[in-house]
Structure formats: structure tokens, C-alpha cells
Amino acid sequence: MSSNNCFLQKYFTVESINISEKKGTPKHPVPDAKCIDDFGIKNDAHGGSGHRQVSLLAGEDIDNMRSKAGELQIKNGDFAENIVTRGIDWTQARLGGKIVIGTVVLEISQIGKECHSGCIISQTVGECIMPKLGIFTRVIEGGTIHAGDSGYYRFR
Predict the structure, then answer these.
(1) Which of 61, 74, 84, 96 could form a disulfide with 15 if both were Cys (CB 3.0 to 4.6 A apart)?
(2) What b-and-e string marks burial along 113-126, b requiring 16 or more CB atoms within 10 Å of the CB?
């Protein structure tokens, strides 16, 4: 088998799923979410036909920000991330890579995004993780995901 056909997989666990019903409001945890083909998560304000339908962050990166935040309490969803993972380093992610959680298949469409200038986390900590560590995806195949599910990222 040539190295061009060799795929590697990195496994992770879904720690938290977060949605917000209105843009500009904090996301809150939900036990499960229905991902809809080329839309995103049902009932999430950021769903739509764009390229940033579902966002992911590593729980380890959120933990790092919590350790720097002092008295500011950072909760899952405060970075507007839909899925918090545990056990994977998303700095290895590449555009076009596939993320599989159960029957759901996500395709990485963007890595990082500009932090909102009024972000309280950035103002308190002096940095934001979204410009370097936020993973944005499109839903290629829909289905339901649950907090606690296992998933994997597939790459060459």
C-alpha cells in the first residue's frame, strides 16, 4: 500500500454539546444534538448553509484558558463552540479532514477565526483560543450525537 492511500485516525470523546437559540447569546450544554446535512445542529442559531455550521474545541485547550482566567468562570460553550472534545490535539487538523461521530460526518472547512473585540475572556486573560484552535466544519452526513460519544478524526 502506498503512503498516498494511508489514512491515520485520532480518537476522541465528546465531552459537551452546546447550542444557543439566538445569535449573540451564550451557548448552553445539551445532552444530544441532531446534525442536519449541510445545515448544522438543529435549534442552534449558527446553523445554516455556510461553511461554519458546527464548531469544535478541545477541552484541554479550554482547561488551559480556565487556569489563566483567575476569578472569571469559563464554561463549556463560552467560546461559542458546539462540541467540546477530550483526547485530541486539534492543531493536527487540516482543511478537508473528516471528523466522524457515530453516523455524523463533518468536514473541516475553516481553522480559527477572529476573536470578537469585546470578548470578556480575551480582555481578562489577554488572549483567545479561537483564532488558532477553533475548528469549523460542514455537516456532510447528519445524525444524532450525544455527550459521551466517541469519535475520530481521519487524515492522511
Answers:
(1) 84
(2) bebeeeeebbeebe
Q: Is residue 5 part of a domain?
A: no
Please check whether residue 39 is in contact with residue 54, taking contact to mean a CB–CB distance below 8 angstroms: no
Confidence (pTM): 0.88
Q: Give a yes or no: residue 3 inside a domain.
A: no
DSSP 37: T
Strands 32-36 and 54-58: unpaired
Return d(Cα 93, Cα 11) in angstroms, integer.
Answer: 13
- What domain count does the chain have? 1
CA distance 97 to 137: 9
